[in-house]
Amino acid sequence: MFWKLFNNKRKEGPSLIWLGTLQAKTRAWGLRISGWLQRKTMTLPPVRLKFYAVLFLLFFGSWNGWIIVQALRNSHPPIPAGQLHLSHSILPSVHPLVDPSSLAGIQKFRSWLDSLRTDTTGRKIYDSIRQQRPGLLDSLGQIEKTLQ
């Protein structure tokens, strides 16, 4: 009697009416097909029906066996190490917060780059930096904008 007190407190799950109707339609469709197959096989003698069943099992069993043998026989190339991970992350990219105390170092680096650009010998170094790291100057500008 004590357990009946807890029986009323159970929460009912979400109603899945569409799932019940889908199951009923699938069951009706299956019964219709099985009835049609029974009417077609009613005229067959039992020996011929057994022969067709064995033929069906042999055909599809050998087909599945062939698929398994082909899968085991053919050696597939190993997956390269670079393809073991997704190329694009599923999670959104989170940009780390920029420390305002590093603004002085960024500005000093930016002034050093500007001095390289004005000097004739430093121009070669500046061009090689721009060629090796094309987005560096844009990134520096964006960081300075966010800190100011």
Number of strands: 0
Largest sheet: none
Indicate the percent of residues in helices: 55-70%
Compressed to H and E, one letter per element, the order equals: HHHHHH
Based on CA atoms alone, the radius of gyration comes out at 37 Å
Mean of all residue-level pLDDT scores:
80
* Tally of alpha and pi helices: 6
Structural class: mainly alpha
Percent strand = under 5%
Low-confidence stretches: none
Terminal CA distance: 72 Å
Shape: elongated
Describe this structure in words.
This protein has 148 residues and is mostly helical. Among the domains are: 18-73, no CATH class; 101-147, no CATH class. 67% of the residues lie in helices and 0% in strands. It has 6 helices and no strands. Helix 4 packs across helix 5 (120-132) and helix 4 (103-118) packs across helix 6. The chain starts with a helix and ends with a helix.
Which key features would you list for this structure?
148 residues, mainly alpha, 6 helices, 0% strand
Summarize the topology.
Elements: H1 3-7, H2 17-41, H3 46-73, H4 103-118, H5 120-132, H6 136-147
Helix pairs in contact: 4-5, 4-6
